[in-house]
TrEMBL record:
Residues 1-20 have a biased composition (Basic and acidic residues). Residues 82-149 form the Transcription elongation factor GreA/GreB C-terminal domain. Keywords: Elongation factor, Protein biosynthesis. GO terms for biological process: regulation of DNA-templated transcription elongation. This is GreA/GreB family elongation factor. InterPro entries: GreA/GreB_C_sf (IPR036953), Tscrpt_elong_fac_GreA/B_C (IPR001437), Tscrpt_elong_fac_GreA/B_fam (IPR023459). Pfam families: GreA_GreB. One of its GO terms (molecular function) is RNA polymerase binding. Residues 1-25 are annotated as: Disordered. It comes from Sphingomonas liriopis.
Length: 154
């Protein structure tokens, strides 16, 4: 048999395991975001005790990610001047539809639930806006009308 068809072990052909990527920039979190990090760590630590040898490495990788996020977390509150920004819920009218967008940290973001990371394009457009402002977005000068701004409730 040719050497090209021999395989020493299955391990040499497995895909390499990489760390979970850490989002660039500061790790801003709301109070709820900080609690989310603590809950993820507690869940992973509990799971690690019962994990099989195969699953331990993935759990440890996730645990390293969340521990790093806990270490780098900067709890941030809504702007004191009442403008839109990190930690606020902004009610807007876009394309004839009204929606309330929460501007949160990267780990708290859930675009399907209108929870956007502060670095998302729409969140960046909203940052610094006041009630009544018309904001440009997607090539239109008046695409977004800001209707209401409130600090996020925990």
């Amino acid at each position: 048999m040719s050497v090209a068809f021999r395989r020493e072990s299955d391990e040499e052909h497995l895909e390499p395991k990489f760390e979970r990527p850490i989002p660039a920039g500061p790790n801003l979190v709301t109070r709820a975001g900080k609690a989310l990090i603590e809950q993820e760590i507690a869940t992973l630590e509990a799971t690690l005790a019962d994990a099989s040898a195969d699953g331990m490495e993935a759990i440890r990788r996730d645990l390293r990610y969340w521990q790093t996020r806990r270490t780098t977390a900067v709890e941030t509150v809504a702007p004191a001047d009442g403008s839109a920004g990190f930690g606020t819920a902004v009610t807007v009218r876009m394309g004839g539809r009204t929606r309330t967008i929460a501007i949160v940290g990267d780990d708290e973001a859930d675009p399907n639930a209108d929870r956007l990371a502060f670095g998302a394009p729409l969140a960046r457009v909203l940052a610094g806006a006041d009630v009544g402002d018309l904001l440009p977005f997607a090539g239109r000068d008046d695409a977004i009308e800001v209707l209401e701004i409130a600090p996020l409730a925990d």
